[in-house]
Amino acid sequence: MKQKTIQLYDFDELSDEAKSKALDNHNEHNDHDFLSENLNDYLSQLLEEAEIKTDNAKLFYSLGYCQGDGVCFEGDFEYKGVNISGRHSGNYYHSNSVNIEAEEIENDDDDDLKSDLNEIVQEEAEAEFKEVYQEICDKIEKAGYGEIEYNQSEEAFKEMCDANEYTFESNGIMRNY
Fold first, then answer.
1. Neighbours of 159 (CB within 10 A)
2. Which of 23, 89, 100, 113 is deepest in the core (most CB within 10 A)?
3. Where are the domains of the chain?
4. Tens of pLDDT along 44-84?
5. What is the per-residue DSSP string for 36-60?
6. Around Cβ 146, how many Cβ atoms within 10 Å?
7. Whole-prediction pTM value?
8. Residues 93, 61: contact at Cβ < 8 Å?
9. Tens of pLDDT along 17-48?
């Protein structure tokens, strides 16, 4: 039987080069599992703050610093008493990849004035919703990139290593026994 002894180090004990290697390896294999739940929670909060009612909002995002990246969400919404539908289309997940339309406000009688007023209310609610929608998508996108950047930082990696008692070889390769 052969027995080998290797020295293991805490992250703080590594050289700068080894720390960089360990962080790069972590970031290369990090799927950002935390992101989906955090962004969905943030979407719910922003919808509530904007007084948009829904029970089926679905969030889509692509945050890889590439063309077409962004955030969008779809679902059936109620905004200022008007039902609005947002449906994703295409291959990209940015705020302009969703078709937003307000449903017609029904008019039970043949009152043309009331019908005209309903149309104005519907158009104004749809236009306002589109603005609020864009703001929500922008906020979520910014928050998502912020979380990714922090999660990929040396500070966050060090905290994770300390909390989980990760150890490394002197060259930055993680070893956990």
1. 12
2. 23
3. 36-151
4. 999 999 999 999 999 999 988 888 889 999 999 999 999 99
5. HHHHHHHHHHHHHHTTEE-S--EEE
6. 10
7. 0.81
8. yes
9. 999 999 999 888 877 777 899 999 999 999 99
